[in-house]
Design goal:
6-stranded mixed β-sheet, 13 helices, disordered C terminus, 5-stranded mixed β-sheet, alpha+beta, elongated, 41% helix
């Protein structure tokens, strides 16, 4: 069982937006927050500075990438400290209609240094959560040296830059299909610079905890106990519980319960084809196996009362439920 692959299959990251930019210094653009999204900016020419509240700013050179994993508001500028202009205003005043690059900056194009970016974002469903997502920093920078150490990432970013600079038929489709590899390899490349992320990825490779995670992900329907998981990896219950909690970030039985809930909740907002009824099986599994709840599970937006989720659900004849209606992203 490839644990990381199973996590990504369940989270179901979807590349939903790609566009090019051509900014001419001086410029500073304020990008608004967007919940349940992982944004990225790849510099294909020039330099830029990306800043977000609660994180150290990132200076990016040509070929470097930054991910904004939590959809946080951020500023893209030619240098730190400039007063930004809201993205909505930039789009409106530039006349950008989605075709070609978004052009903004000095009145005379080419008079100053230009920065060309390929920007995009992945989305995932409301309610999806995992220690891997929580371990991602506010800004995740992939430097040129990191690219050099990871040939697969370097190759993917080169393909993204090439596809993103073209207006040929199918170019956007190529970008979308490269997106999952871009995310996985960027996370791997940057992990050593971020302690929490390195710890969670390291748990998947750990001989004992990785084995326990593989058992949980491979058979979430089994009646696992702390004792059975500890025995399977040849550890005492107390040592296993302490070690698992330290490197994964949650206790083993909490991880198991949360994972059982994540599987049936994933994919509701954007249903995909479900060959063989696998998603319906997941829904039933989550209802049946959660250790505390023996009734249908209602995914609810963070901070909302449980009744909100129930009121926004529509009963189905098969006993399952349609997706909940959550507030639009900020």
């Amino acid at each position: 069982m490839d644990v990381l692959n199973d996590i990504l299959d369940t989270i179901e990251l979807r590349a939903t937006l790609y566009f090019r930019t051509r900014f001419t210094a001086p410029y500073a653009i304020a990008v608004p927050p967007y919940r349940q999204a992982i944004r990225f900016h790849l510099v294909v020419q020039g330099r830029c500075h990306v800043a977000s509240d609660g994180a150290a700013g990132a200076d990016l050179g040509m070929g470097e990438l930054v991910l904004v994993p939590r959809g946080a508001a951020h500023v893209i500028a030619d240098r730190a400290g400039r007063e930004p202009v809201a993205l909505d205003r930039v789009v409106a005043e530039s006349g950008f209609d989605g075709a070609g690059p978004l052009v903004w900056g000095a009145a005379q194009a080419g008079a100053n240094e230009e920065t060309h970016l390929i920007c995009g974002h992945f989305t995932y469903d409301e309610g999806v959560d995992h220690p891997l997502l929580r371990a991602l920093p506010t800004l995740l920078r992939v430097s040129a040296p990191a690219r050099a150490r990871h040939p697969l990432l370097d190759g993917v970013l080169g393909l993204v830059a090439k596809a993103g600079s073209q207006d040929e038929p199918g170019a956007r489709g190529s970008l979308i299909r490269l997106s999952e590899v871009l995310f996985i390899e960027s996370v791997r490349a940057a992990a050593q610079d971020h302690e929490d992320l390195d710890r969670v990825l390291g748990a998947m490779a750990d001989p004992r905890i990785g084995r326990a995670l593989a058992l949980i992900h491979g058979a979430p329907e089994r009646d696992w106990t702390l004792a059975s998981l500890a025995s399977a990896v040849a550890m005492s219950r107390s040592r296993f519980a302490a070690y698992f909690s330290t490197i994964v970030g949650v206790a083993p039985m909490r991880y198991l319960a949360d994972w059982r809930l994540q599987r049936p909740c994933a994919g509701r907002a954007h249903p995909r084809p479900d060959p063989g009824g696998r998603r319906q099986d997941r829904l039933r599994l989550g209802r049946r196996l959660h250790p505390r709840l023996r009734r249908p599970l209602w995914p609810v937006a963070a901070g909302a009362a449980p009744g909100v989720g129930r009121r926004n659900l529509t009963d189905r004849p098969d006993g399952l439920t349609e997706r909940p209606v959550f507030p639009a992203p900020d």
